[in-house]
Hints:
This protein is 36% helix and 28% strand. It is built from 8 helices and 8 strands, in the order H-E-E-E-E-H-H-E-E-H-E-H-H-E-H-H. Strand 1 and strand 2 form a beta hairpin.
Amino acid sequence: MYLRAVHAEQSIPILQQFIRANPLGLFTTxxxxxxxxxxxxxHIPFVLDVDDKSDQVHLGILRGHLARANPQAKALIExxxxxxxxxxxxxxxxxxxxxxxxxxxxGPAHHYVTPKFYRETKPATGKVVPTWNYSAVxxxxxxxxFHDSKxxxxxxxxxxxxxxxxxxxxxxxxxxxxxxWQVDDAPGSYVDLLKKxxxxxxxxxxxxxxxxxxxQELCAGDQEGVIQGFEALESDIGAEMAKTINExxxxxxxxxx
Length: 257
């Protein structure tokens, strides 16, 4: 990811909160396989664990799961089974990939920006071009794959992961503070059957970066034009874009005035 200084977010806690607020990540692997593409990606909702008690900055651990029927999961299992001597024999039903994985989390609002919004530069020089505003966080990390359905650790990992993910989604996303849906609301035999159809993915984050590309590089007059342009759309996405741009550019505009 290109992290231009004016757009880059340097705060690790803010980047972590971004992931929690936008937990659907694009999980990407580069796995050599005779049967499946080298590069594969899947959309996976993640749970982020951070050790706040550590004296050092803890980037975090992401937990998710993939359907066994997913070609990416099949490639992972095939690769781990065929290279167990190099990757390490399975430890309690899990194996660690030697290659890094990448996950990208996108913000809720992104939009094309027309040069017609640039009310200061466009009439003055005409030297303006379109762009696209967005926000995203990208991580690299080491993945542990829980794919042995007979191992107790796989069952334990998946049991905790689906419970934590369901609670996170019900409470934080849906807002059900009281009586959220819980895994125990479904028949135990049904849940156990579904657990056999998925594999667990745990990623220890080794590098994290993110950006809010929200017109920070523009002069104050153009920033105001972009904000007003999005407000004039009178749409939910336009309102969200105007709000985010205003928040991210407020310091720039105050310095210019």
